[in-house]
Amino acid sequence: MPQHSSKLHSSNQQPDVTPSTPKSQRTKMVRSSDDNEKKNLVKKLKDIEFSVPIVYGNIAFWLGKKASEYQSHRWTVYVRGATNEDLSVVVKRVVFQLHSSFNNPMRVVESPPFELSESGWGEFEIAITLHFHNDVCEKPLHLYHHLKLYPEDESGSMSVKKPVVVESYDEVVFSEPSEVLFARVQNHPAVIVPRLPPGIILPPVSVEDADKRKKFDPKDNPLTQWFTNFSEADELLKLAAARQQVQAQIARVRRQLSLIDGQHQQHSKPPNDL
Known about the structure:
Helix content: 10-25%
Radius of gyration: 25 Å
Number of helices: 4
Organism: Lactuca virosa
Pfam families: YEATS (PF03366)
Order of helices and strands: EHEEEEEEEEHHH
Structural class: alpha+beta
Largest sheet: 5 strands, mixed
Oligomer: single chain
Region (Disordered): 1-37
Protein name: YEATS domain-containing protein
Main location: nucleus
Strand content: 25-35%
Distance between the termini: 94 Å
């Protein structure tokens, strides 16, 4: 089926294929009062929270000589861990809502990798809904991603080898987890957990949860080579660089103001008596 798009591209346009700048944010998931009432028999860790860095976006490959008017690109939309870890430790399923021109536009992915591949010619917004396991959070997380097939810079030629990659970073925070949940995620590579206060003894991880970790190996994903490398260290370096730029600008403005003030004082000084 053809895909409608707010941005149309004729077949003779040949833009350069370059990744877009990733976007970052932080989302805190809060349980409702009903959630708390249902979980009141579960022992929780008060004043404790853990976070799960996620990345969502798409990769689009131009089909080259195989491209047609309505099938110019093969693309994949996905939700993954920041460094491509398995998210199924907290995510139960992901729902991708495609444009209505697709057959069965609501696609449900029940297991990792949480991704969906299609082909077409148009760009449109995809609604992505993350459903978590019941002991994580009963409220789903709604994300929105604009499918990108063509690069921002529309000069040059397209390549069948280098795709367009557009990704957004989000850090999802969960508060007051149960002891069972915290035990399940504490050693998982996709989850950032705090140090627990002394004296807290967590229950053992079930055999079923341990087996789930072995079923999916992110390294097997052929798209891995194109993913953006997100890491806490990289984010801190970016923040430090931005802070240095701001401080340098402030220092430059202060020097200019000081120079102007000095010149003003010099001109306003009364002449010496002869």
